[in-house]
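Why do we care about 3D structure at all? Because function follows from shape, and shape follows, mostly, from sequence. That is the central idea of this module. The next example makes it concrete: a single protein chain, its amino acid sequence, and then its structure expressed as C-alpha cells.
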Amino acid sequence: MSDDHQSDEAKPPVTLGQTVGTKATRKLRERRRSRSQSTWFGLAMMGLIGWSVAIPALLGAALGIWIDAHYPGVHAWTLSLLVAGLVLGCLNAWRWVTRQDQAMRDDPPEEKGHDHE
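And the structure:
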C-alpha cells in the first residue's frame, strides 16, 4: 500500500485542461475512425449476411433438383430443400449478427480505462 502512495506522489498532478484535451483528442480520433469504417463495415456485413443466406438456399435447391432428376417420386424435393436451405441460412446469419453485436458491446474502445486519471 505504501508503494502505491509513493508512486502517486511522484506523478505530477493532472490539470483539468490536460484531462479535457486528452478526452477531446480521443473523441475526435474515434469519430474519424468510426466514420471511415462504418460505411465499409456496413457494406461488408450486408454482403456476408447475404451470402450466408443465399449459399445454403442455392445448395438446397441444387440438391433438390438433383434428387428430383435421379429419384422421381410423388414429392418434389426442390422447393422443400430450397426452403430448408433458406431457413438454415437465416439462422446462421442471425447467429453471426448476434455474435458480432455482442463482441462490439463487450469490446471497449481504446484507452477507455484512462478517463479517471
